[in-house]
Amino acid sequence: MEFAFTEEQVMIADTARGFFAEHATSARTRAAMAADGIDRELWSSFCNELGLAGVGVPEALGGAGLGMVEFALIAEAAGAQVAALPLMGNARAAHALVAGGTPEQQARWLPALVSGESIATSASSQDASFSNGKLSGTFRFAPHGGSADLLLLTAGEQCLVVEASAPGVAVTAHVTMDQTRPLATIVLNNAPAETVADHAAANRALDVTGLICLAAEALGGAQAALDRTVAYSKERVQFGRAIGSFQAYKHRLADMMIEIEQARSAVYWAACAIDEGSDEAQIALHSAKAFCADTFHMCAGNMIQLHGGIGFTWEHDAHLFFKRARSILSMLGDSQWHREQIAALVLDQAA
Amino acid sequence: MEFAFTEEQVMIADTARGFFAEHATSARTRAAMAADGIDRELWSSFCNELGLAGVGVPEALGGAGLGMVEFALIAEAAGAQVAALPLMGNARAAHALVAGGTPEQQARWLPALVSGESIATSASSQDASFSNGKLSGTFRFAPHGGSADLLLLTAGEQCLVVEASAPGVAVTAHVTMDQTRPLATIVLNNAPAETVADHAAANRALDVTGLICLAAEALGGAQAALDRTVAYSKERVQFGRAIGSFQAYKHRLADMMIEIEQARSAVYWAACAIDEGSDEAQIALHSAKAFCADTFHMCAGNMIQLHGGIGFTWEHDAHLFFKRARSILSMLGDSQWHREQIAALVLDQAA
Amino acid sequence: MKLGFSAEDEAFRAECAGWLQAQMAGPFADIRGIPNLCDEIPRRKEWEQQLAADRWSCIGWPAAWGGRDATLAQQVIFAEEYARAGAPNRINHIGVELAGPTILAFGSEAQKAQYLPDIVAGRKIWCQGYSEPGAGSDLANVKTKARLEDGDWVVDGQKVWTSLAHYSDMIFVVARSEEGSKGPKGLSFLLMDMDQPGVEVRPIRQINGEAEFNETFLTEARCPADAMLGAAGDGWKVAMALLAFERGVSTLGQQMQFRNELDAVIAAARTNGKAADPIIRQRIAQAEIGLRLMRYGALRMLSNTDLSDIDGAALTYKIQWAKWRRDLGELAMDVLGQEAEIAASNHYEWGVLPNIYLYSRSDTIYGGTNQIQRNLIAERGLGMPREPRGIS
Amino acid sequence: MKLGFSAEDEAFRAECAGWLQAQMAGPFADIRGIPNLCDEIPRRKEWEQQLAADRWSCIGWPAAWGGRDATLAQQVIFAEEYARAGAPNRINHIGVELAGPTILAFGSEAQKAQYLPDIVAGRKIWCQGYSEPGAGSDLANVKTKARLEDGDWVVDGQKVWTSLAHYSDMIFVVARSEEGSKGPKGLSFLLMDMDQPGVEVRPIRQINGEAEFNETFLTEARCPADAMLGAAGDGWKVAMALLAFERGVSTLGQQMQFRNELDAVIAAARTNGKAADPIIRQRIAQAEIGLRLMRYGALRMLSNTDLSDIDGAALTYKIQWAKWRRDLGELAMDVLGQEAEIAASNHYEWGVLPNIYLYSRSDTIYGGTNQIQRNLIAERGLGMPREPRGIS
Fold it and tell me: Mean pLDDT over residues C167-178, rounded?
């Protein structure tokens, strides 16, 4: 038992942080926001130069063969810059195919997902119908769905692989509050779809990867909101004093740090629990998603508030954090839903 | 429409405030806490010298013939000192008998309730049984029940008058967290009980009077918690400064004032709405109880916190406020319950 | 203490309700219930003028200046009926509720005659030049300068967060007229035309994608020497009095808007089934309580006739509504779910409920942040020591 | 990063679990699971001595001083098994976890030989003389004075909030040994016998009716010149190091107590049906999350080997648990309902759950109020400007 990062993990974290801080600049993110929410150049360097898109994919399948802890470190660094990337979609799809795909599906898609050549999204529907290799139904809220080549779709208990370019596939990209990860609605009308080899494993990988990704992004975003506000508060003078010298301001920053430190524990506890197959994995996942999303929303809201007037302008980056925080809150189950899952685990099993 | 006190109301408020500030001292309250939670001397002066125990009872029945606004002013002043008095029990019983009692019951009890000679309590039970003038069942959480002469008991939809000295009545007084209003359990075994003339009116008066009393006490207690903390903070020096000069401390006091100002609106809105028979009366009652109880608990908790170490000693009065606040929170429906009643009024009626 | 309305009041209600409903059903049906303050400006100006034509534009003003000397009860009633009829937000809120009452209080008879009729008639729209970049909510730190030259005040400086400046005709400006003065001393309160070469307005795009606020650049902008309220150096006093009007009857109209917003949340919850969620129910009840208490808080402060008094209800009102509305925005998002994050069109434009969520982040900032409000409450309401200023 | 335990660790778990369960089922069954720290003092001293007899009293200490050089994992395991077995709270927590490690870090060999064996063996119970009336949590403002006289330190002053002083044998005292010194300078750290005429202990009755805390009056109280940790004037440094131990492995035992408390709330909710209330469910889930995150926060800070580092998990830990427990107390009351406010007996004495509610109001105050914790976090964790001290 050792709840500290290995040297390799520290190196990955440093590399990822440096990469996003240098490349995922506000100007580039804003350019991506005005388009489809993907900074293609960033995405390409991330996949090819940095080579981190396949961090959780086994080496035999072309990835780095590492685990959820390492993936979380990367998502945290991307979240700290609100980077406009299909990181979640590709990681979810890759991990789902690793966990439950057929060898053919793995061979067909994993190299393109790891290289960034293909973009993937996932969505689910309770009333889609699948028969004779054809899928019909509406799949809503697919992140970066408007740009996706590969659709990994959960229909009830099934997990299906669909090509976006196939006949019968209609994707509508929406203007979305968080423009760095716009949502799309996917309507399938007898579209050709493949089943995976192990539906439960693929769906589980979709869930796990999605929740870890969002929790880690939220952690990174919350820490960045704090860091940027701290820096601002030391420079900005009002009433003849640096605003950071006002005790109420300091305490608000302290409150952010208190939550963030817990969020940090939550992300790495959950990632570790998944990697180690711990009994605690499920409660850890729900805890991490709920706690980190709440923390990020609180911190991003404070970031706006503590920047004063400039904080609610379009020009300042605070709203990028705030809107990302909102989207994380509602994506893949809101905090109330995740807490209810925990309550069920804690209260409803036989004593 | 004029949401300001009349001159007469201001006078009643000043008189009541002065009376309780002078007489309901910490030493006397603590003596009452060690006994049955009633400061008999205070009670007697309140009823006879001040003559305010019958403020809401019509003049023809020996009271002052005023309304809920005036009653609330008095309860607020008593709450500000956490006075150890059967104010709520007597007012509830008196108003219930005024509203629904038979002329005989009114003649028998009102003079004694207004003079303070008799002490009353109320409690309710869902599974008591009444037949042939005999009542059986268990009535819990009766405030000052151990000292009561008159029991006004709600059994389902019925309202019954029972004398505490009657055969078949067993009252157990409990050591209670708030020692200024200890609770009792009343067990009746075929005890003689009288029905009132109008059950619905009597039960409604019990409810209304209880809720207004608790909300007003909470308002007074919250304001006193703030006032005492403000005074302390200007004197107490730490780190070489009056602690009240620390901005975080000031903001905490400001937060108390923000809630208290709303609580004040709530109490007088509700009292006025009752007196005027307004459509809003029910939502106002629920609002006042929930909001004021929450406010008082928050303020009393802050009072302890902002006094530092001395604040959680037995010797300091902060715990009297805190425990009274807790008892108000849970008495006659907790805040969650009252909010749910409001939700039902707002959400569940036909659009 | 009395909350009900008299028979006379109810007659007044019938009269104004009848008029408002007829207008909104008839000639102004096209702008009934439009939510955004920046939409349909020309039509809204026509609406202001229609209000004026039937003497409904400034009912609280003295009859001598085009008002109706309306009682508090009547003003409450008018605000209620105005909202019930779906009449749009007043484009000249600042003229009618801030500039006008301040001119009534501090202006000479000549000034009243010059400015008030244009406000009453809806001919001139006003905006407010208080905040500056770098000074934020700190009015005592105003840097904009005014000097007297050839019988004109010549003003240089920059104002920011000037709400609706881009379609305003007039602006009131707090400027430093005494060179070298510091803090609240040496400020003056000037009434200036927007339509002149020295005034440039640049919109500020906000978090919700819209641009209601502006930067206003004053470069040798001019006004006549007598376009000043109070004497030179009285600017602080006049500005503070104006802020008190902000807590006046204008709160009633604002509350009716909040009522409509909460009703929209309730309607959404009923429609999508969230009204059955016990936690959403608690939050809706909380919002309902908060709104009602704002109403009675406002009535308490309005029933207190002396606005300059330190009145707890008045002092705490701003932070109350700002927090209430921020909570409402979050509740609205949670009621709507992920749906709320998708725009209805291909533009970055938001419906009423998501817009509350975004816009309300500024409610806790403009007009004095919640932090500054808490200082004021503690210092003025509770007599706590003042927060020390740095050496500036 | 690894959370699982090794096979070796699991063997250690089996060993200590076996021993603890046997003790709690057998000779110490009478004090199994007693909640109140002040109950059954003599039996608890015997329990401390039994722990010592089998070398379980200070497992994290070096073997040379009676410990087991236990790894972090082993200490985690021991804390878990200790709680699982229902063993009572350690009466000598302050000796074992604060005084001992501080003496190990700063003591001479002679001092170690003099003090450590009595702690390991459970022969001497310690308490802590930090806070003073008027100084509160402000250690730099200590007024208690120490002067050297005939080879003894002679100490005069008053300490307050000395937890469990009424049955302690030893006290460590921070005193001002340099006359006229101010702030953190001129303080010394003294180890004193409680059993002497110059020491008087007066219990302070708390909000819950019990008296765990005390005032301790020192009137010409004495200790030998060499009963000082570090040199004269080093008191601040030693005291700060000791505070760091407070965030050490002792947190693990505390968390096991919290686990038991939350389990008691859960059991109560299941019994009385509140477990079906969706809002109570949310709050229980929140508490569950908070407790788990405290555990992993503690493991993060313990895995960081240098305790003097500014470590975010360590810096925020106190306020985290204090708030968690206060919330738990309120949750417990809401789960139990009005029932919770009635005592089981005729005395003003409270069961575990209502007692958390009352007692936890002090958790956010002693050992540095939440306000002071936030200052520390902002200043030390975020590098914000320091809060100015007044002129004292």
Answer: 95
Do B83 and B74 contact (CB within 8 A), yes or no?
no
Inter-residue contact C327 to C287 (CB < 8 Å): yes
Give the model's pLDDT for residue D310.
57
Neighbouring C-beta atoms of residue D271, cutoff 10 Å: 12
Chains B and D: how many Cβ contacts under 8 Å? 109
A139 to chain C, closest Cα gap in Å: 13
Strand, coil or helix: what is D79?
helix
> How far apart are the C-alpha atoms of A347 and B1, rounded to whole Å?
52
Tell me the domains of chain D and their CATH numbers.
7-91 (no CATH), 126-232 (2.40.110.10), 247-382 (1.20.140.10)
Nearest to A207 by CA among A150, A284, A131, A295: A284
The neighbour count for residue D59, using CB atoms within 10 Å, is 23
| Residue at A123 is within a domain | no
CATH number of domain containing A229: 1.20.140.10
Q: In this prediction, what percent of chain C has a pLDDT beyond 90? A: 72
> Which residues of chain A are within 8 Å of residue D262 when distances are taken between CB atoms?
none
- Strands B158-163 and B169-173, sheet pairing: unpaired
Mean pLDDT for D311-329 is 92
Q: Inter-chain contact D390–B304, Cβ cutoff 8 Å? A: no
Residues 6 or more apart in contact with residue D181 via CB below 8 angstroms: D187
Q: Where is B70: in which H helix or E strand?
A: helix B68-80
Residue B209: domain span: 201-346
Please compute Rg for chain C using Cα positions: 21
User: For chain B, first and last CA: distance in Å?
Assistant: 29
For chain B, how many structural domains are there in total?
Answer: 1
Residue D246 designated active-site: yes
In this prediction, residue C30 has a pLDDT band, given cuts at 50, 70 and 90, of very high
Q: How does pLDDT run across B113-144, given as a tens digit for each residue? A: 999 999 999 999 999 999 999 999 999 999 99
Task: Give the per-residue pLDDT at B350.
Answer: 58
Please state, in angstroms and rounded to a whole number, the distance separating the CA atoms of residues C223 and C148: 10
H-only helix segments in D153-277: 235-246, 250-272
Distance CA B275, CA C263 (A): 28
Is B335 in CB contact (< 8 Å) with chain C?
Answer: no
Touching D (3+ Cβ pairs <8 A), the chains are A, B, C
CB pairs C-D closer than 8 Å: 8
Is B166 a member of any domain? no
Does residue A44 fall inside a structural domain?
A: no
Q: Is the pLDDT of residue C102 over 50?
A: yes
Q: Is the pLDDT of residue C34 over 90?
A: no
Residues 6+ apart with CB under 8 A from B229: B253, B256, B302, B303, B306, B307
The CA distance from C212 to C210, in Å, is 6
Q: Please tell me the distance from the alpha carbon of residue B164 to that of residue B171, in angstroms, as a whole number.
A: 8
Residues of D with CB below 8 A from C277's CB? 278
Bridge partners (DSSP) of residue B131 are B134
* Own/partner long-range contacts of C107-116 (Cβ < 8 Å, ≥24 apart): C107/C229, C108/C226, C110/C226, C111/C191, C111/C226, C111/C227, C111/C229, C112/C65, C115/C170, C115/C191, C116/C61, C116/C65, C116/C66
pLDDT at B218 over 70: yes
DSSP states of A224-285: HHHHHHHHHHHH-EETTEEGGGSHHHHHHHHHHHHHHHHHHHHHHHHHHHHHTT-TTHHHHH
Shortest distance, CA B226 to any CA of chain C (angstroms): 9
Residues present in chain B in total:
351
Instruction: Pick D382's closest partner by Cβ from A230, A247, A342.
Output: A230
Q: Name the token pair of D265.
A: 């709330």
| Cβ atoms A91, A56 nearer than 8 A | yes
Put simply, the answer to whether B269 touches C3 (Cβ < 8 Å) is yes
